[in-house]
Amino acid sequence: MVPVLLALTTFVSTALGGVFALRNRDRLHRILGFTAGVLLGVVAFDLLPEVHHLANTTGTDFTAPMIALVAGFLAFHIVEKLTVIHSAHEDEYAPGHHHPQLGVVSAVALSAHSFFDGVGIGLAFQVSTTTGFAVAFAVIAHDFSDGLNTVTLMLLNGNTSARSLWLLALDATTPLLGAASTLLFHVPDKELLLYLGFFTGFLLYIGASDILPEAHASHPSRLTLLLTVAGTVLIFIVTRVRV
Hints:
Elements: H1 2-23, H2 29-58, H3 63-82, H4 100-127, H5 129-156, H6 161-181, H7 189-217, H8 222-242
């Protein structure tokens, strides 16, 4: 039940992101800069070493999980562009040209994405407890941005605050369902290895393409850069202490 309990934290993280978007978005850049560094640290110092370890113990060619990593990166890139959920597109919606249905579709797409965030947490715990906590931490940090983007896309497309909150509630709930679903099945080590590679590609994508650009979009500063480095160093220290 640990993955489900951690998924409850993603509910809080997503909800806070949405509420933040409703009130004041200008103070987000420093948090996002730090989060991007955390994601980089999780990938470099936790997930990739675990992929290497699983490849050795299962006798799998290391190329296979690296192909899965690239597939994960490209898959989320393609899905994101096709569903118009990338926050960089916000400036394309000119004032007076609102499309409420587009906001709803985008928010639902983000909710489906959040469901697989929860699945990711559950499957990571099938790899190991330490990997599970590392992935959960990364997802929790990312889901703050998800909540923010859900509300922002709803409001930008002319939806009411009340409807935006309903879609935010959906986005915050789906990770719980995803994590709970993994209690019903177990994935063999070789398949977990490919999943871990795929999920690593996903984390690289959201860090490099979503979170980091958003952190510097409106408030480029040296402090944000320093916080990104600090997030990476923090995960390095945490993983060294844990070892």
